[in-house]
Design brief:
CATH class of the largest domain: Alpha Beta
Strand content: 25-35%
CATH architecture of the largest domain: 3-Layer(aba) Sandwich
Number of helices: 11
Number of domains: 2
Length: 312
Amino acid sequence: MNAITTRSLTHRFGKSTVLDNLNLKVPAGSIYGLVGPNGAGKTTTLRLLAGLLEPSYGEIRINELRLSLFRQEAQRQIGYMPDFFGVYDDLLVWEYLDFFARCYKLSPQQRQRVTHELLELVDLVEKRYDPIQTLSRGMRQRLCLAHALVHDPKILLLDEPASGLDPRARVEMRALLLELRHMGKTLLVSSHILGELGEMCDGLAILDCGRLVACGPLNEIRQNVNPLRCLEIRFLSDISQITKLLKQHQQVNEILSDRQTDRLEIRFSGGDDSLADLIEMLVQRNVRLISVREIENGIEETFLTMTRGESL
């Protein structure tokens, strides 16, 4: 089941098309990364999904509810955390969450319980009675995430949740997002920190010039970008010997030499059985192997391959 589905979603500002025919599917219970160059349409996509913008054309479904027909019910299932958010500096931390809980018409007992549970979740219990203006940026980010969770939404739309955070705060935010997935939430996360998305995302949606150029599990996208496997071979034998043997193998498409003389990178078109045969052949030819490991295409390489960063 998909938590988010769009069909031919298009948005225009005047004569400029910001989002063009977006067909997006985000499976329920997953973390999906939304990436693209500046101006690719990421923030516009999130605002459309949150019901804050009206599409020029197309359809949005939130857990199979058509947003245009069941707006209030669909929006109740969404928690949205924008890139730039405002907080009321003169409020205490618990008052901030209590205020938004009141907006969702929670009872006093519910507000007290929800406020405590969310402060525990985002690790701000000790800051409960502190003015918001005294919080660090990382603490404010976590508080605003708690704000998006006040009404217990099934889907979270997060626009650059780790923006401006130091390394420790980014680690804490990543752990929090993984915990939310463990709780059964679906997360669509826009971010420029591609390495961290690769570590936690189940899938990826790549936007370029307002168009969706790839969407699906990260491994499938990597495979489509480069179907050849990249292998690193470390050895103690003479480099000319192993290079000669590798060139004779039909499924070794390319050999890349490292500056060091004890390793090579190869582009390999075979499956696991063929790789096992290659290793067996090298050992039989008295090549002293240290290790053979597969190097996955990084998310940054995939991103750069599939995007141009041009305007529509």
